[in-house]
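Write out the bound-state structure for glycinamide ribonucleotide.
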Amino acid sequence: MKVGVLISGRGSNLKSLLDACATPDFPAQIVTVISNRPGAGGLDHARAAGVAAETIDHKDFNGREAFEAEVTKALEAAGVDLLCLAGFMRVVSAGFVRHWQGRMINIHPSLLPLFPGLDTHARALEAGVRLHGCSVHYVNEEVDGGPIIGQAAVPVLPGDDPAGLAARVLTAEHRLYPACLRLVAEGKVRCRDGRVAISADFDPSERLFSPPLED
Ligand code: GAR
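---
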């Protein structure tokens, strides 16, 4: 499966996808990386991995649609089958979502549907949740609202601040996104009626409790 990745910044999730794709037998290959911001750190990760990387600066376009048309043109020229958003901080238009419907996934730093949007870690601390985490989901027209493919949870610990919690979640992101990409690329993920069904073997005895249970 040929994958295109859209980024806006440091690109640590992109790096985790590049590393996964470089492992033997991984069922996907990243063919192009596009940043909407010039100088995004993630562009260097792509180039270091020998992957084509370019900037399409949204500020150079008259409106969202014109910017997105250029992005789609570049992705299609690279033969992209699946589009991964990895810290891409532009809201995408309904037309872009329709064009990539069922072929565009995103990682979001919360256990959706909790905390869509920005500042998820500060909002999780403010809400007092004991578990926080990240989600990989198909993109639909609702911001951070599409069918969920996978989630990873981390505990919220006493004394956490938003930066510390973000770092713990990011570690989970770097494991979750490649795992979800693998499931999608292997055809083990099906999207029906706005929900994801996964044909994969999971151990149902695995549970996560925070705080841990006492024996
Ligand atoms: C990640 O935490 C990602 O989940 C988040 O931005 C960060 C990008 O980091 N994405 C969003 O908030 C999208 N709504 P990265 O550039 O190091 O991958």
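---
The radius of gyration is 17 Å.
The mean pLDDT is 95.
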